[in-house]
Amino acid sequence: MSNYDVIVVGAGIVGAACSYFASAQGLRVAIVEPGPIGGGTTAAAMGHLVTMDDDPAELALAQYSLGLWEALTDLPQAEYRRCGTLWVASNADEYARILPRLQQLAAAGVQAELIDAQQLYQLEPTLAPGLAGGMRVPGEAVVYPPGVARHLVDTALARGAVLYRQRATHVADGNVTMDDRSRLSGNVLVATGYALPQLLPQLPIRARKGHLVITDRHPGLISHQLLELGYADSAHGSDESSVAFNVQPRATGQILIGSSREFDATSTEASIPMVRRMLARSFRFIPALQQLEAIRIWTGFRPTSIDGQPYLGRVPQQTNLWVAAGHEGLGITTSLGSAQLLVDQLLGRTTAIDAQAYNPARVFA
């Protein structure tokens, strides 16, 4: 049995970040991942770095994590682009909801501004006519998540971490068994996303399927990441299926179109009715998208916890078993902050933000 200070199970962007921050502290790190680095949910993510303000704990984690992302802005494989986010109000009622959000963001130290209709069309001329205005968050960005995950793991390996191309079949308090029956011992940190129940069934995760469409190259069509103000209602809602307007300009000049959400969908195949529904939503806001050619459609599964907050911390009733999973659609944004919180807890340090809201013990409260 090989001994390590921490064994990270899973190398999506959350697990990759955990290995990165743990190795930065000089810890002996093992990474257990049978598939491509960042090849699961991470590869299917839009890669938005946004501050969601619907819940104080969510806002705190996103804001903390975005500060850590600043260290990666010059990383070529990240394709980091600080395009800013423009939240679009469809009508006067939605526009009226912006002011409280601005106040909440300002209290958290997030720069944002109210945009009237005239300014909206100056910023994004291709938007459909008749929109009421919006909210602009200029400091936000988009990245290429698999490239970031690969960099984080490569950096950890350069610091001495060891990558095991095995599947973890069993985790216990202080050890991991892999599919070749070999075992590793040490603190175990499970970061397997929506597959978490396979190893930690006591922590409920519900997989939520999403679709994405990417177009051919049309640089200059849009400048910002664009979302409708009702996006959070879709993201946090309990409906079995929903769509919301969310498009991104990619560094390649392509347009990435989302988003859809489906509970209880198990097939990885694209659902053409769902794709049509999602595209119809995006065409409503940007009619010019109808003229573009889609070159790829793909799906992924978001890991959704019981209350929308990730599980970050020690597994209840265990000493050397930890978890970082359940980020739903904010896993890219909050990956770095989540990992730093985990490593600080593992080392017995005071965390930069209050981590109680993410404590897995809440499942049993």
From TrEMBL:
**Do you know which InterPro entries this protein is assigned to?**
FAD-dep_OxRdtase (IPR006076), FAD/NAD-bd_sf (IPR036188)
Per UniProt, which keywords does this protein have? Oxidoreductase
Gene Ontology cellular component terms for the protein in this record: cytoplasm
Gene Ontology terms for molecular function: oxidoreductase activity
Q: Could you tell me which Pfam families the record lists for this protein? A: DAO (PF01266)
Question: Out of the domains of life, which is the source?
Answer: Bacteria
Q: Which residues form the FAD dependent oxidoreductase domain?
A: 5-344
This protein is called: FAD-binding oxidoreductase
